[in-house]
Specification:
Length: about 240
């Protein structure tokens, strides 16, 4: 990412360095992966408490109940979130906390989308223990870390514009994010009303707010903007 893009997304509040990270939240729906990662972090960083969540909604609820962790490790594909949505949602709640995306998907466009959305780094699930620990330590010390061989130019060259767009999406409320997801699935207002058990007039009010926040004039434009940063789709 460019220096301007990095400066634009600088955390508004101080955050700990690697030696000060004491509480981590792992968001991953695979129990074995989650447990193995938690054990690795406890041993490698001397951590006593590693929190886990199986879904994005579970992570959000846990953060509200238990407070912000010092760092987050987030799986790309969750039961209730795919693509950059997890980063965008958690970045809204945790503006000063480093969030690491972890995945077996190393497609350049997906990495670019995650980094533009505010990830501190993007790492492969196939990393060795030593490489994983080294990558996390560098991220927690403030470095932006991406897979070896990745080039920002391989995805969308306009990182700053994508980062700004991700910030606009992060201003959506959870309900507005649900409605936008359904819009991207091609649902009509009446279908959204039925699925979310809210009045159709309420759906229209939310859509008006969504369009204003992301600076879109039509539903098709909103879908294109969401797709441009891989908000709901990983592949």
């Amino acid at each position: 990412m460019t220096a301007a893009a990095i400066q634009a997304r600088s955390a508004p509040t101080p955050r700990p360095n690697a030696d000060q990270v004491r509480e981590i939240l792992i968001v991953d729906d695979h129990p074995l992966m989650c447990d193995a990662l938690a054990l690795t972090l406890k041993i490698s960083f001397g951590l006593k408490n590693v929190r886990t969540a199986r879904s994005l909604a579970g992570a959000v609820d846990q953060i509200r109940a238990q407070g912000a962790p010092d760092a987050v490790i987030l799986d790309l594909n969750l039961p209730d979130a795919r693509g950059a949505e997890g980063i965008v949602t958690l970045r809204r709640q945790l503006p000063g906390v480093p969030i690491t995306m972890i995945s077996a998907d190393l497609e350049g466009a997906m990495i670019s989308a995650a980094m533009a959305a505010g990830a501190q780094g993007y790492i492969s699930k196939s990393l060795s223990r030593e490489a994983l620990v080294d990558s996390l330590r560098r991220m927690w010390d403030g470095e932006l870390v991406t897979p070896e061989g990745y080039s920002a130019d391989a995805g969308n060259a306009d990182d700053e514009a994508r980062a700004e767009l991700a910030r606009r999406f992060s201003s959506l409320t959870p309900q507005q994010m649900k409605i936008l997801r359904l819009i991207c699935q091609g649902k009509a207002n009446k279908e959204i009303s039925y699925e979310l058990s809210i009045a159709e007039a309420t759906v229209k009010t939310h859509i008006t707010a969504i369009m204003s926040k992301i600076n879109a004039r039509r539903r098709t434009q909103a879908v294109l903007l969401a797709n441009s940063i891989r908000l709901f789709e990983a592949g």
